[in-house]
Amino acid sequence: MADQAISLSKYNQDWPRMFQVEKLRLAPLLCPWIEGGIEHVGSTAVVGMVAKPIIDIMVGVKSLVVSKEAIQVLTQHGYCYYPYKADVMHWFCKPTPEFRTHHLHLVPFNSLLWQERISFREKLRASSVLRAEYCALKQALVQEYKDDREQYTQQKWPFIKRVLGC
């Protein structure tokens, strides 16, 4: 999968609307597999956060095995599938790997990954101190790992673990 260079944007008030539009589009497509709802996660879901301007959407599913059929449905509707972290989710992006506006994660509802993402989002929403700390970390990391998305993501993990109390 080709990676585009990482760039961060100031919070955009259109991000919640962009999530809602996509949620309404996805709900009927994924109806047979949804359990636990469709959530806006990641930094675009937190007012005031700097973020890669990519809407992260997490869909709770019954299981990865049961929801495997959703891969074909989503690829027929503009999503690109990649077996990234395939042991814990089905991962998609759109419109292309080189230019992404959305990431879609089908995650078993109430799994550890589901709970961590919801908890982290809620902690950031509730604390301006955590938001400021996370913004500063992300801005420093993007300077160092602008062309290495995987390292950029990995280097955020110690902060995330600390916030989650792991």
What does this protein structure show overall?
The chain has about 170 residues and is α+β, with helices and mostly antiparallel strands. The protein contains five helices and five strands. Strands 1-2-5-4-3 form a five-stranded mixed β-sheet, with helices on both faces. A hairpin with a 7-residue loop joins strand 3 and strand 4 (about 90-95). The chain is globular. The mean pLDDT is about 95.
User: What sequence of helices (H) and strands (E) makes up the elements?
Assistant: HEEHEEEHHH
Average pLDDT score: 94
- Contiguous low-pLDDT stretches (5 residues minimum) are none
Distance between the termini: 31 Å
The largest sheet is:
5 strands, mixed
Total of DSSP H or I helical runs spanning 4+ residues: 5
Tell me roughly what share of residues is in helical segments: 40-55%
Oligomer: single chain
Count all strands and give the number: 5
Structural class by sheet pairing and helices: alpha+beta
**What is the CA-based Rg, rounded?**
15 Å
Shape: globular
Concise account of the structure shown:
The protein is α+β, with helices and mostly antiparallel strands and 166 residues long. It has five helices and five strands, in the order αββαβββααα.
